[in-house]
Amino acid sequence: MLNFKNLNHQLILQKTSLKFSLLTLKKRAILSFCLSLSLITGISATQAEPIYNREHIFHPVIARNGMVSSQERYATEAGLEVLKEGGNAIDAAVTIGFTLAVTLPRAGNLGGGGFMLMHSAKENQTLAIDYREKAPQAATRDLFLDDNGEVDPEKSRFSYLAVGVPGTVAGLTMALEKYGTISLGRALKPAIELAENGFPISEDLYESLLFAQKRIQAYPASTAIFFKPGGMPYEVGDILIQKDLAKSLKLIAKEGSKAFYQGA
């Protein structure tokens, strides 16, 4: 006679095994169902992989109402505050983008560009904005070649010729106008405050400034912003103030993107 009780027990074990195999393949944190894990893999509970490993760069996080992530803490907090006030994801993204122009100078800056991918749950539509930099109108195919016709990395990466027409300000303001709910002034508020009043230099920012010290100090105006008088580097915890950047951000908040591209 077929033992249905035993068969059901085998099926349950097979389903459990499949479930844990999928979790392992996806490199998810292994849940501590120690008994099931021991039966399936033969690994004792004392040898089970921990749920959290500080060396991993991915950490599972759960939130009920919304979530914000960026490369820098102050920018993330600025975006989260917008969500708490009732703003949508685009409001938070634009706020973060402008804040990174202050707190992550090596990447998040007004003189650069980027992309934005968004999904409208209401309209069930996925949209993308491309606001990467554009080559100047007078650019030519041989712009970055040396006298021998070979590509010159210095020209293409670190010279004045390498500068494209920035897209950051145009892209972020357009995204806010078309898909956001808050004002441009509100989106720029955290960035203006951080630039004007300053913020403590993090370990990450400190190391990036040291790495680029030689190139930054080739330009006196940049040296005056990111290094102490005499060219000495700021230390972790020192306050970085960017008054001129604050003025630029205030003009953008007041007059829109035209202040950046056409002057004010």
UniProtKB/TrEMBL annotation:
User: What keywords does the record list, in alphabetical order?
Assistant: Acyltransferase, Transferase
* The keyword S-adenosyl-L-methionine is annotated on this UniProt entry: no
**A GO MF term:** leukotriene C4 gamma-glutamyl transferase activity
InterPro entries in the record:
GGT_bact, Ntn_hydrolases_N
| UniProt KW Acyltransferase keyword | yes
Source superkingdom: Bacteria
| Record-listed E.C. numbers | 2.3.2.2
Protein family according to the UniProt entry: Belongs to the gamma-glutamyltransferase family.
What is the name of this protein? Answer: Gamma-glutamyltransferase
Q: Which organism is it from?
A: Symploca sp. SIO1C4
